[in-house]
Amino acid sequence: MLRARNLSLIAGVATAALVLTACGSSSTTATAPTSSSTSSSASVAASAPASSSPATSGAADPFGAITGDPSTVKLGMAYDGPKGDQSFTDSAARGVTAATGKGVKLVAELAATVGEPDQKKVDRLSQLVDQGANTIIAVGFDYATAMGTVAAANPNVHFAIVDDASLSDPTRKGGALKNVASLTFAAEQSSYLVGVAAALKSKTAHVGFIGGVNTPLINTFQAGFDAGAKAANASIKIDNKNITEPPDFSGFNAPDKGQTIAKGMYDGGADVVYSAAGGSGNGVFKAAQTASKFAIGVDSDQYKLPTLASVKSVIISSAVKNVDVAVYNMIASVAAGKPLTGVQTYDLKNGGVGISYSGGAIDEFKTKIDDYQAKIIAGTIKVPTTLS
Questions:
Q1: Three-state DSSP state, 152
Q2: How far apart are CA 139 and CA 1, in angstroms?
Q3: Nearest to 160 by CA among 320, 22, 33
Q4: pLDDT in tens, 350-377
Q5: pTM score above 0.70
Q6: Where does residue 67 rank: exposed (0-12), middle (13-18), buried (19+ CB within 10 A)?
Q7: Are the C-beta atoms of 219 and 386 separated by less than 8 Å?
Q8: Which of 72, 117, 143, 275 has the highest CB neighbour count under 10 A?
Q9: CA angle (330, 56, 85) in 5-degree steps
Q10: Is the distance from CB of 303 to CB of 297 less than 8 angstroms?
Q11: How far apart (Å, rounded) are the C-alpha atoms in residues 259 and 281?
Q12: Is the model's pLDDT at 307 over the cut of 50?
């Protein structure tokens, strides 16, 4: 899910509203295809692939065609946790599935374990190189140190990392790595919109936020949510709590703890809780169901996931983060001979993040939410990226 190391850089980059392109420069802008950025998973296409359409629009090819020769891409994936979280990791895996369905060769998919040292990640990335991967994508900020080592040692391999911009920072020791793309997201913007939705939906003027781990990135989600909720209702009461503190990162996969914390919030009067905690959100949904209250998902449009069908009635919205599109675009750019490098930011303006309306629970507020979204895109509303 949402993960981060020191992401003050990402926070600054996110507000710059960069738009994705498939050029080789270290900081790029381009025009994304027209799509509804309020849809559950609007697509952001690199200029290397053909035009794409929203990932949940029902189009035959939701990600867009791959130009060039997809068989030239030998893909290695390094996840920061096992697949099956129904959120962050699974979203990245959908991008892989889309690409391999069009001829890209998957060399291997490997996953980290909670609390492992950086050397384990160095070994994992090096293993992918040794197995012949020429394109390696690490899903999660915690690969930053390891990727810095392995990418520098393998300049002819294309690397990308999700949720970290440090390797593309020209001020870092050794300078920006030219063979690394930093795939970042303006998560505070989508979190702001679901904060608005939560405040408008709440009958008790009391909502909650549960983060997986107390990191700068999760604080970005909280900052956006709190700001959106307060914008919609200045007197709203907000409960904020993270499941774990670093170096304990188990909070992203601890549904029992998520359920306990959410139960406490619901028992205390909150009637809508937003979970930015990866697999732990499943516990939040169960708590909402037991309390006959509401919850908001994250990263994927969780209302639509078959594995969450039993609790979808309580999921009123999700703050969507299109990791699948970012992963797919990186792969497609390599196939097209124009590998992405540098910071690539996905935001509301280019459809990289958004809010879902699946299930219709917040349809009555769509006009108001759209107004806030338009103001964020126009720059009239500056969404905070840090906690006050």
A1: helix
A2: 9
A3: 22
A4: 989 999 999 999 999 999 999 999 999 9
A5: yes
A6: middle
A7: yes
A8: 275
A9: 70
A10: yes
A11: 8
A12: yes
